[in-house]
Each structure stands twice: as C-alpha cells, then as structure tokens.
Amino acid sequence: MISLAGRDILHAWGKFVLTGLGLGLLIGVTLTMAGVYRGMVDDANVLLDNSGADLWVVQQDTQGPYAESSSIEDDTYRGILGMPGVARAANVTYLTMQVRQLRDGQARDVRAMVVGIAPDGPGHPGQPGYLVDGRHLTRGHYEAVADIATGFALGERIRIRRNEYTVVGLTRRMVSSGGDPMVFIPLKDAQEAQFLKDNDAIVRQRARTAQNPALNRPGVPGLLDAVIASQSTNRSVNAVLVQIERGADPDAVAEPIRRWKRLSVYTRAQMQDILIEKLIATAARQIGMFLVILAVVSAAIVAFIIYTLTMGKIREIAVLKLIGTRNRTIAAMILQQAVVLGLIGFVVGKISATFWAPIFPKYVLLESGDAVRGFLAVVVICILASVLAIRAALKVDPAEAIGG
Amino acid sequence: MDERHSGSSARGIRIEGIRKRYGQGDTAVDALKDVNMVVAPGEVVGLIGPSGSGKSTLLKCLGAVIEPTAGRMTLGQDVIFDDGWKIPDLRALRRDKIGFVFQAPYLIPFLDVTDNVALLPMLAGVPNGEARKRALALLKALDVEHRAKAMPSQLSGGEQQRVSIARGLVNRPPVILADEPTAPLDSERALAVIHILNQMAKQFDTAIIVVTHDEKIIPTFKRIYHIRDGVTHEEVGEGRGID
Questions:
Q1: Of the candidates A251, A323, B173, B240, which lies 20 to 30 Å from B199 by C-alpha distance?
Q2: By a Cβ cutoff of 8 Å, what residues of chain B touch chain A?
Q3: Closest among B177, B102, B187, B192 to B143, alpha carbons compared
C-alpha cells in the first residue's frame, strides 16, 4: 500500500515546509526557554562548584549568602577552623553592582558580582578554580580577577566604588546564580566597598555622632574618635566557606558549628536546594508557564493547519471512503501528516535554538534530554492536534462523492 | 476460479421493488417507491429522469452508501439486500463489487494517474507491483497509457474521465455506476466516453448503469430506465452509434 500521507506531503511540499518552518521557530523558542531554565540551574550549580566549599556558614536564621543577606564577623572563621572535621575555612563577601571599565578614556559599566576573597591562592575556598590567563590575587589590595564574560582584558583598569583595580587574571564560567559574571577582589577591599559611604555622608555621620552626648563625653577623651573609627570600618563578611576533611560527614561537621557558634550552616545539598527551589523557583515557574503557553499555541497551530488541509480534501476523502478506503487508512494519513509537520518543526526548532542560544546574554543550556522530551512532546501534541481533523474526516459521508 | 472471472451468470445486477423513505410520520418522503431494474453482464443501460425523480437516491442505494427501506438487490448470484443488508462489510462490497464513475472525475490530486487507478486493488490487498501492472493494462486499453506518470491536474477533461473509468474498472467489479459521466464534456468526447463504457462492459463482462440527462448520449442506449416520482419504467432505446 502506498503512503497517502507521503504522497500528499510531496504534492504540497511547499505548504508543509513553510508551515513547518513557522512551527519550527515556535518550537525553537520553546526549546530555548527550557534552555534558559537549565542555564539558571547550571549557573547555580556552577556557583556552588566554583566556591570550592563543602559547608556555607552564615548568619543565624538566614539563608545567605546567595538567597538572603547575611552578615557575620570576619574573625568567625578562626573559631570554625578549630572545629572537628574542618580542613579549611575562608571569609567571603558577595556584592552585585556595576563595575566601571576604564578603557581608552571611555567608561563602560558592567553588571557583575564582586566577590571578596582572601588572597590565599588556588584550592582555597572561594578562590576561582582555574584561570584562562594571568595569575591569581597575590596582593591585599587593588587587584582583580575577572570572568571573561565581563569583557575585561588582562592589565585593564576597572573601578569599584572609589577605588581602581588592575585586572591580573581572567577566569571562565564564574557566574552568580543570576548569571552575572564574577569579579574577584581582595577581601579587605570588598569589605570596604560593601559599606563605603561618600564623603558627604561620612561628614554628616561624624557630625551626628559628635552631637550625641552619650558618645561625646567631655570626661572621656578618645571615645568619640574610637566610635567614629568603628563606624568607618567594616568587619563583617557574608559567609565563611568551609572545606571539610577527606572522608568527613558534612552533616556531622555542620552540627557542632551550628550549636556552638550560633550560626546557620548549610551543606552542599541544602545550599543547592535553597538556590534551585527558592532562589530561582519563581523564575522557573515563570518559564514553566511560558512553556505551557507555547505548547498550547504550537498545538493550536498544528491543529489549525491540519484541520484546514483536511477540510480542503473533503471531496477526495469522500471519494476514498466511497471506493472502500478504511477509516483507519484515512485517519493514519491525517495523523502521519501532523507528525511529519511536527518533525519538520522540531528539526527546524532544534537547529534554530542551537544557532541562537550562544547569542543570549545569559547562559542557555540546551540539554539532549530536553531535546528528547521536546521531541516526544511535539509528537504527542501533533497526535492530539490531528484529532479534530480526523474526527471531521471520519464524519465525511461517502455519499458526498455522488451528486444530487 | 475467482468469482469475478467466472461466467456471465455470476455477474449483472437485479433490483426488485426497491423503496426508500426519508423521515417518519407526516414528514416522511418516499424518494423511491418501486424501482425494478435488471442489467445483464456486458450491458450498458441508461437511467434518466428529471431533477428530484430519485436518480441520485437510487444511485446511493445501488452504491451501498445509503440503505433502502425495502426491496431486494442481487449482484450476480449474491443477494446483497433483502429488506436489509445481507453483506456485513459494505466498504469491501463497494471496493470489490461496485465501480464508480463520477460526473467530475474526482481523481486524487496527490497521486499520479497510475496510482489513482492502482489505489483500489492496493486497498484490496493486492501487492503494489501487481496493482500497478493491472492499472497500466487498463490505461492502455483506454488509450491514456502515455499519461501514466502525469498528475491529474496535467490531464485534459476527457483524459481525466478515462482515468476515472479505469479506476472504476480496475477491480473488475460486476457492476459500474456512472453518475453523469459525460456532463462536463462536449458531444464528441461524451460519445467517446459512452463508446469506451460499452467496450469495457463487453470486454470485462460488466453491467453498467449510466445516470444521465445528457440528450447527446441518450440515443446511444439500447435499453433505458426512466425514473419518475420514484418509480422506474423500462423502454427500448435506439442504441445508435455504439457498435
């Protein structure tokens, strides 16, 4: 038996290809939306991987440092180092801000996550895992290591708040959970940058402090200076990143820190849960809604096209039925056409998504698993979409082929 | 031997007392009141009548598309209707025992000429190669073999009608129902089509009923059934220019 669907498609190939092209672009958008979500999850995982930490120690009753703000004293890590099972511990600060690129007298602002780390070298918690060019931070001030997505070049000068930094190293795929590239600077500079006020604000704060009789007592010389000095320095960090000893149980190491240091401690699994289930959950639901809408729109388009094509063949279908064609042969013809339309659409969509994904400003991860799931969804949608046309075709009376 | 290739006694169609009523009660309409016809194998008869006389209804009943209300129909030696269908699979009956030729050829636009004809045997389970061989033989007999690879849209009206006749004949049905097959054609082509139908009827031992009100071809029939108000009346035709 010849393939009626195949012959019809070959006969009207232009119509099928153009429709498949349009549908394909829609499927491409759908695959890209799934890729955006995968990219967000991957960014979150990369953030955790690149931190080099097994435990995140943050302010009590907060879910910091990524999902909520957290502030702990910068000497906390010393006490943590003495806890059982802890191999390494390091302070870290995170601050998302506009970093100014100074190139050829031109200024350009780049949104980045500024990460303050102690310049201890590779392997230490919080350090960039690897560099693609240059070196790690070695000095305590005014050096930076930047992700290449910032567009910064080695040796280039950048400005963070009032201070200028020299880019001494470049790294890759070091991004925040929001996909912003990271810029690593020395911890002291980052602590200062986090709470640095402008000069006018400092003058106003000093005047206000001096007017406070509790802090400016004539009988206590040096008190006012001490208070002002404490106000202009920042001894807080956002988190302490902890590496545990080989073979140690993260939960067993975390528990005494929680108990004795009065801090919140998260393991890798818990932090992953916070990032994916809480931080990007709303965005994921948003994308999920888009995916549902796009799937419905795709189904509506396929249904409309197949229905229109079928309605255009009513007389031929009546003749086919009159000369003894089985209903299942006619249904199979319509179904095969819908599936072929879906296949053309999927191929066009996959190619389109692969081509345009790298152009997106944030990471778009097109997973093979999503492609397979997308393919199956397209086939199912096409099958469902053809039901309307099949119902219409099966209702055609073979008597319509006979005049009168 | 296959029934389709058996002797004349196994072919032809006999219709006795066929009635068809649409609706019920006060709104009931008797489209066919008393239809009686006998068409022998190899014979072409005309079925003529004014609009609304019941021609199309009769054709649909004979084509097993609608069910008559009462009567009896015999195809060859098989009773196919006797106050109810006696054949369980009407689709197979239409496919194997009844050929159709329509007013417009209604060829499948996405199949070439050969496959348009070969589709019927393929639907009956004949292998593609054998079905195409059968189709080509018929196309040759109808003098359209040279257009075997053409698409329907590339054919003239006369060629399309000949392909349509080939499709009606390809399964060697005992009876062919032709619904106004010459309506869209000029006199010369209309007579050519009737000539072909007569030839094919003889060659394949098929009974052919031609529904028409085409004045050009009415004189060509040897026997004519007039249908008026759902009742058939037989008369002898002129039978001109056929042999």
A1: A323
A2: 55-57, 59-60, 63, 65-66, 91-92, 94-96, 100, 102-103, 106, 108-111, 115, 119-120, 122-124, 128, 151, 167, 179-180
A3: B192
Contact present, B73 and B193 (Cβ < 8 Å):
no
**What is residue A111's DSSP assignment?**
E
For chain A, the first-to-last Cα distance in angstroms comes to 32
Task: Find the largest Cα–Cα distance for chain A.
Answer: 118
pLDDT of residue A157: 92
Cα distance between residue A170 and residue A30, in whole Å: 34
The pair of three-digit structure tokens given for residue B134, joined into one six-digit string: 């059968």
Rounded Cα distance between A338 and A335, Å, is: 5
Interface contact A15, partner B, CB < 8 A: no
The Cα of A348 is separated from the nearest Cα of chain B by a number of Å equal to 25
Residue A404 CA neighbour count, 13 Å, CB half = 24
CB A240 within 8 A of CB A77: yes
Which amino acid, A337?
Q
d(CA A57, CA B132): 80
In this predicted model, what pLDDT tens digit does every residue of B176-193 receive, in sequence order?
A: 998 888 877 788 878 888
Instruction: Delineate the domains of chain B, giving CATH numbers in brackets.
Output: 7-236 (3.40.50.300)
Output the DSSP codes for A24-50: HHHHHHHHHHHHHHHHHHHHHHHHHHH
The residue ranges of DSSP E strands in A280-381, in sequence order, are none
| pLDDT tens, residue by residue, B54-64 | 888 898 899 88
Go through B104-116 and write b for each residue having 16 or more CB atoms within 10 A of its CB, e for each that does not. bbbbbbbbbbbbb
With beta carbons less than 8 A apart as the criterion, state whether B42 and B8 touch. Answer: yes
Q: How far is CA A362 from CA A10, A153, A359, B156, in A?
A: 41, 20, 9, 61
Consecutive H or E run containing A237: strand A236-237
Cis amide linkage into residue B88, ω under 30° from 0: no
Most B CBs within 10 Å, among A322, A328, A333, A397, to test the B interface: A322
> Which has the closest alpha carbon to B73: B22, B36, B100?
B36
* φ, ψ of residue A402 in degrees (nearest 5): -100, 130
Mean pLDDT of successive 10-residue stretches along chain A, which has 404 residues: 88 88 90 90 86 92 87 90 92 92 85 90 82 91 93 92 92 86 92 81 88 85 85 84 93 92 93 87 86 85 84 87 88 91 92 94 89 91 88 88 67
Which of A316, A323, A403 has its CB closest to that of B179?
A403
Query: Rounded distance, CA B222 to CA B202, Å?
Result: 14
Q: What is the pLDDT of residue B243?
A: 56
What local confidence, expressed as pLDDT, does residue B4 receive?
37
Q: Sign of torsion, CA B118 B122 B128 B130?
A: negative
CB contact under 8 A, B94 and A399: no
CB pairs under 8 A between A and B: 81
Pairing mode, strands A236-237 and A72-73: antiparallel
Q: State how far the Cα of A257 lies from the Cα of A86, in Å rounded to an integer.
A: 10
pLDDT value for B3: 38
Q: Look-up: residue for tokens 């636009």? A: B109
Within 10 angstroms of residue A277's Cβ, the number of other Cβ atoms is 11
For residue A11, the chain B residues in CB contact (below 8 A) are: 109-110, 151
How far does the CA of residue A385 sit from the closest CA of chain B (Å)? 23
